[in-house]
Design brief:
Blueprint: E1 2-3, H1 7-18, E2 29-33, H2 40-45, E3 53-57, H3 63-77, E4 83-87, E5 91-93, H4 97-107, E6 113-122, H5 129-133, H6 136-140, E7 150-152, E8 161-165, H7 166-170, H8 190-200, E9 205-217, H9 224-241, E10 249-250, E11 253-254, H10 255-274, H11 277-301, E12 307-312, H12 319-333, E13 337-342, H13 348-356, E14 362-364, H14 377-393, E15 399-404, H15 411-419, E16 424-428, H16 442-450, E17 452-457, H17 460-470, E18 479-482, H18 496-506, E19 513-518, H19 527-538, E20 544-549, H20 555-565, E21 571-573, E22 589-592, H21 601-608, E23 613-616, H22 621-625, E24 631-634, H23 639-651, H24 653-671, H25 673-684
Parallel strand pairs: 1-2, 2-3, 6-9, 12-13, 12-15, 13-14, 15-16, 16-17, 17-18, 19-20, 19-22, 20-21, 22-23, 23-24
Antiparallel strand pairs: 4-8, 5-9, 6-8, 7-9, 10-11
Helix pairs in contact: 9-11, 10-11, 15-16, 19-20, 19-23, 21-24, 24-25
C-alpha cells in the first residue's frame, strides 16, 4: 500500500493486519510512505516487530509512483511466482483475507488479475439519500454486494483490494504515474487504467468475493459536495482512459457528450422548477462528471505541444512498423509522447496488445488514398476533405510523422496533415525506383511538402532514391538526415549457451553447419534464391541445414520446392517468430538474398548475435555491409559467385568466428538503441 498522511487510519488498518490468519506461503507487507508531513512514517515503523513489514519511501509524489516503487522492490527481492496484493491505508482486511487470496489464485491459475470485495466501514451512519442516489462504487470504491465469484469486467477491479501475479510486472507492466492520487485534485482511475490495459493485452480479470476488506468512509465524505467532487474527478479520469479520435469531436470533446451535456442542463432546469430533489441531485452528478471530462479535455488541448502521431500506409508487420513503435519510445525519452495510427493488417491486434503493456496506443486510421490509387483519385480527395481531415484532427497531434514505405505511399496522409495545418516529418524506409508525378498530382504534392519540417531516411541509398523524386518539392529549410534502424543489443546478443539452446529448440544437430534468414517469404526477400543457393551448397557441404524464419505469400511455394528437391529433413521453417533473438544464434551465417532493401533490420540483428552476415549487393544491405568487417556482399544475379563466397566462409570456421566478433562490435557501436536514439532526438530537436 501507499500512504500519504495516513496517520489517522493506519493504526486501525495495521491492527487488522496483525489479526490476519497466516496463509501457507510466506508473506510480506510493503508500505510506501509518499511525502507525509504527519507522523505516518514513525507509526508504521512501530509495527515492524509485529508484522513482516518493510517501510519504503518514495522520492516522487503520487500514489502510482509509490506503488511502482514497491513493485520494483518486490521484483528485485523475490524471485518466486508470488501474488502482489494491493490495498489502501484506510482499508482493513478481514482475518482470512490472505488465505482467501491464496485459495483464489490457486483455483484459477489461468488468471493473472483479480479483484476482491470492498465493503463499507462507515465512520458515521450515512444519510438516507446517499445509498439511494449515489454510485457508491465510483464514489467510495465499494464493490457491489451481489457481484458473483467469476470473470469480471476489468474496470470493476479497484485499488483498495486487488491482486496481480508477479509475472505480469516481470513482463514490464507498471501503473501510469500521470493518473490517480497525487496530493491534490486528480483524475481518478489509477488502478482501472492498469487493469483495462492488461485486459487488452490478454490478461482477463476474476472477482473473488471472499477476499474482503472494509473501506473506512469518513464523516466529511458523506456530503453532497464530496460526492459531486468525486463525480468531477471521475470525469477527468474517464477522459484520460478514452482513446483520442474514437468519436467525432469538437474542441477536443466527443460531440455526443456535448449533446448529452445540453440535455442534462435542460433536465437540471426542469428539476429545479418542479422541486424534484432526487432528480435534481442526479442531474448535478451527471453535470459534474461531464464538467470533469471537459476540464481534462481542455488540459489536453493546452498541452505541451509535444504530441506526435506516427502513421503510414502499412500492409503488414515488418521492420518499418517496429521502427515506428521504437520512435514512440525515443520521443518519451525527450519528454514528448507519440501514438501509432495505421490501417488494419494481419497480426495488428496481437502486436497492439504487446505494445499496450508500454502504454503505446495503436489506433485504426485508413484515410482515402488519392495519390496511391489513381482510378478513384478525385472521389478519394473529396472524401479526404470531408471525412479524413476531421478524423486526423481528432487525434489532437501537434506533429504528424509519416513513415514513407514506397514511391508515393504516404503522400495522401502527408497532404492531409498540411490540409489540417499540422506540421509533419517524413521517415523513408525503402530505396524505391524513380516514379513519374502526374500533372494532376503535382500541385497537391507541393501543398503536401509545404508543411514538412524534416526528412530522414534509414540509409543513404533510401535518402538518395527519395530525393531523386521529391527534392523539387522540399523547402530549403527542411531538415534532412540519415538515421539507421536500431537493434536492442541487450536482447540480441551472442553466447554459446544461446547457440546450444536455439539449436536444441529447433531440432538442429549441434555439429551441423546452418545457414538461414529471418525474412518474410515474399518476392522482395527472394526466398527461392536462398533455397537455390542452399541446393547448390549442399553438393559440397552435405552436413548443411537451412533455417527460414518468417511467413508470407510464397510460403506454400517454397515448401513445395523443398519437398520436390527431397530436402525436407534439412530445411526448418519456423513461421513468424516474435522472439527472433532466440532463433538467430543457431546460425553459422545469416544470408539475405533480397533484390531490394530499405535497410535490412534482420542483418543487424544477426550481427548483434555475433553471427556473420551475407547479403546481396543492393541498396539498403550495401549501406550496412559496404565497409563492414562482419559481413560480405554477393552479386544479386550471380548465384554461382554467391555460392563460391558462402562456401568459402563455411570452410573457414576461424574466419566466421572473427567476423562474428567484429559484427557484434559494429552492431553495438553503430546500431544500438542508445546510439540511434541520440540521432533521432537530435533530429526532432526544435521540430516539436
Amino acid at each position: 500500500m501507499a500512504t500519504c498522511n495516513g496517520e489517522q487510519t493506519l493504526s486501525r488498518v495495521l491492527e487488522g493486519y496483525c489479526r490476519l490468519q497466516a496463509p501457507r506461503q510466506a508473506w510480506q507487507l510493503l508500505v510506501v510512505e509518499n511525502g507525509s508531513s504527519d507522523g505516518t512514517g514513525k507509526l508504521v515503523a512501530g509495527y515492524q516487530d509485529r508484522l513482516p513489514l518493510h517501510l519504503l519511501r518514495s522520492p516522487h509524489p503520487g500514489k502510482n509512483a509509490a506503488l511502482n516503487l514497491a513493485v520494483e522492490w518486490a521484483l528485485r527481492n523475490d524471485r518466486g511466482e508470488g501474488l502482489y496484493i494491493f490495498s489502501d491505508d484506510d482499508a482493513t482486511p478481514a482475518p482470512d483475507w490472505l488465505r482467501q487470496w491464496e485459495a483464489c489464485a490457486a483455483a484459477h491459475p489461468e488468471y493473472a488479475v483479480f479483484g476482491g470485495a470492498i465493503e463499507p466501514d462507515w465512520a458515521h451512519p450515512p444519510p438516507e439519500w446517499l445509498p439511494r442516489l449515489v454510485p457508491t462504487g465510483l464514489t467510495f470504491g465499494l464493490t457491489a454486494p451481489d457481484l458473483p465469484d467469476g470473470p469480471v469486467f476489468p474496470g470493476l477491479v479497484w485499488g483498495a483490494n486487488m491482486a496481480v501475479r508477479r509475472a505480469v510486472f516481470a513482463a514490464g507492466y507498471r501503473y501510469d504515474t500521470m493518473i490517480g492520487p497525487n496530493g491534490g485534485a486528480y483524475a481518478m482511475g489509477g488502478e482501472t487504467e492498469l487493469t483495462r490495459r492488461l485486459a487488452l493485452a490478454g490478461y482477463p480479470a476474476w472477482f473473488c468475493p471472499l477476499a474482503r476488506v472494509g473501506h473506512y468512509i469518513r464523516r466529511h465524505q458523506l456530503t453532497a459536495e464530496y460526492v459531486l467532487d468525486k463525480a468531477w474527478r471521475y470525469g477527468r479520469g474517464k477522459y484520460r482512459q478514452d482513446r483520442p479520435g474514437t468519436f467525432p469531436e469538437w474542441l477536443g470533446v466527443p460531440r455526443w457528450m456535448l449533446a448529452r451535456y445540453a440535455l442534462e442542463c435542460l433536465g437540471y432546469l426542469r428539476a429545479r422548477l418542479t422541486g424534484a430533489g432526487d432528480r435534481l441531485f442526479l442531474r448535478r452528478w451527471e453535470l459534474a462528471y461531464l464538467r470533469g471530462y471537459f476540464f481534462e479535455a481542455r488540459l489536453g488541448r493546452r498541452g505541451t505541444g509535444r504530441q506526435v502521431l506516427i502513421t503510414s500506409y502499412s500492409g503488414e508487420l515488418g521492420g518499418m512498423e517496429m521502427r515506428m513503435a521504437q520512435e514512440v519510445r525515443y520521443l518519451r525519452q525527450a519528454g514528448a509522447d507519440g501514438s501509432l495510427a495505421l490501417r488494419r493488417f494481419a497480426g495488428i491486434d496481437a502486436w497492439a496488445a504487446q505494445l499496450a503493456r508500454e502504454q503505446i496506443t495503436v489506433a485504426e486510421f485508413d484515410p482515402p488514398r488519392f495519390f496511391e490509387q489513381w482510378a478513384w483519385r478525385r472521389w478519394n480527395l473529396l472524401r479526404a476533405r470531408l471525412w479524413a481531415a476531421r478524423r486526423l484532427r481528432a487525434f489532437r497531434a501537434d506533429l504528424v510523422h509519416v513513415a514513407w514505405c514506397w514511391t508515393n505511399y504516404g503522400a495522401s496522409v502527408l497532404w492531409l496533415a498540411r490540409y489540417c495545418r499540422l506540421p509533419a516529418v517524413v521517415s523513408v524506409h525503402n530505396a524505391f525506383p524513380a516514379a513519374e508525378i502526374s500533372a494532376w498530382h503535382r500541385p497537391l504534392l507541393r501543398q503536401a511538402f509545404d508543411g514538412v519540417r524534416g526528412v530522414y531516411a534509414v540509409s543513404q541509398s533510401a535518402l538518395e532514391h527519395f530525393m531523386a523524386i521529391y527534392r523539387p518539392y522540399l523547402r530549403a529549410s527542411t531538415r534532412v538526415a540519415v538515421i539507421p534502424n536500431c537493434v536492442d543489443v541487450d536482447r540480441f546478443k551472442p553466447g554459446e549457451g544461446l547457440r546450444h539452446a536455439a539449436r536444441s529448440a529447433l531440432g538442429l544437430p549441434e555439429d551441423a553447419l546452418v545457414i538461414g534468414a529471418a525474412a518474410r517469404l515474399s518476392e522482395q526477400k527472394r526466398p527461392m534464391a536462398l533455397l537455390e543457393l542452399f541446393v547448390s551448397l549442399r553438393q559440397r557441404h552435405p552436413q548443411l541445414y537451412l533455417l527460414m524464419a518468417g511467413s508470407g505469400p510464397l510460403e506454400v511455394a517454397v515448401k513445395e520446392r523443398v519437398r520436390q528437391a527431397g530436402l525436407a529433413p534439412f530445411v526448418v521453417f519456423t513461421g513468424f517468430v516474435a522472439s527472433i533473438e532466440t532463433v538467430l544464434p543457431a546460425l553459422d551465417l545469416h544470408i539475405l538474398m533480397s533484390w531490394n532493401e530499405g535497410f535490412g533490420i534482420a542483418t543487424i540483428e544477426a550481427m548483434a548475435c555475433g553471427v556473420p552476415v551475407v547479403a546481396t549487393d543492393v541498396p539498403g544491405s550495401a549501406d550496412i555491409l559496404r565497409d563492414s568487417q562482419g559481413g560480405v556482399l554477393v552479386p544479386v544475379h550471380d548465384l554461382e559467385a554467391a555460392s563460391a563466397t558462402v562456401s568459402g566462409l563455411l570452410d573457414d570456421a576461424e574466419r566466421r568466428r572473427s567476423m562474428g566478433r567484429l559484427a557484434r562490435e559494429e552492431a553495438v557501436s553503430r546500431y544500438s538503441c542508445a546510439v540511434v536514439g541520440k540521432q533521432v532526438l537530435a533530429f526532432y530537436d526544435q521540430l516539436i
